[in-house]
Amino acid sequence: MTRAERYRRELLENVIPFWMRHSVDQEHGGFFTCLDRDGQIYDRRKYVWLNGRQVWTLAKLYRAVEPRQEWLEAAQQGAEFLRKNVYDAEGRCYFAVQADGAPAAYQRKPYGAVFVMLGLLELSKATNDATLRAEAEGLFRKVRTWIADPTLLGRPSFGEPASQLADIYVLAFMALELAEDTPDLPLMRDCLRGVKAHLQKGVLLETATDLATPEGRLFCPGSSFEIAWILLRLLDYSPDAGMEQWLLDVVAQTMTYWQEGFPYFVDIAGHPTLQLESSQRLWWVHVEALVALATAYDRTGDRRWLSWFDQVDEYTWRHFRDERNREWFGYLDKSGVPELTLKGNHYKGCFHIPRALLYCSEIFFRHAL
Q: How many whole angstroms separate alpha carbon 93 and alpha carbon 143?
């Protein structure tokens, strides 16, 4: 079986059927994401950013793989649940709502709105719905405003805010998703320029701030991989050979942190991290590495990237994939043993794994690998 066939089969026969079977709320709409190993729900609250991500995933599959009506209907009911329930009086998004849509939790961050926007946008492409498109574009403008001025979300200001890699990531991904119709070249170039402030020792740090602080030294390999492949795709709209090589170098340097799996967090000066979970191996870190390495191979044809891909692939499929109940584990200890057997929670949902399986399969189908 080729790499492309293996990735596409895992996506369509294991991962997506798990979420379709266990997460869709047939009573109220939306998606449950807190699922145990067998798919049983252990928290009936609905986490807004994960619901937006699942709408995006299902609508993307409908467009990119095949127009299965069950995927479209699930995405549509998820979008309607979001549109009806997740906005407060000022148009901001809750972090979580109850099963029936009543507010449950709020964060002073823009990321829930980001993924509602992305879900509505992708569904608008699948259905040619101009109303959904307009709502997504409106949220996009709000997110840009909130990132520029976090006090609008109720976050106190303590001096000049430092650049956050997460903000560059979400702006770049939204720009990439919007680019099919209306490429925002100024925003793309802002992201490509802004990421350079995060480079230290060849990798991208979470915050561009004082290296004398733990926050300023914090490195997550997953973030470095994910932002690199997204920005590489932006270069299709704003070509820059020097920036392409810069990003490829970031991916290569991030690979040097391989320790039979990637740690979640690292202090680049070798100090202890404040995050107690730093030594864990997380699902999204590893699948974002796979997308970054496949993307690097796609752009260069250099088999060095393919060799690294196969190294990460072997570890990831052996340790994260659950042979018994489909879908993948999310949290391993340093030795590669699952610390938690859940398949979803308030951070892990139907997004990183299916997106990685889809994108890697697309790349390898193009190269007949």
A: 10
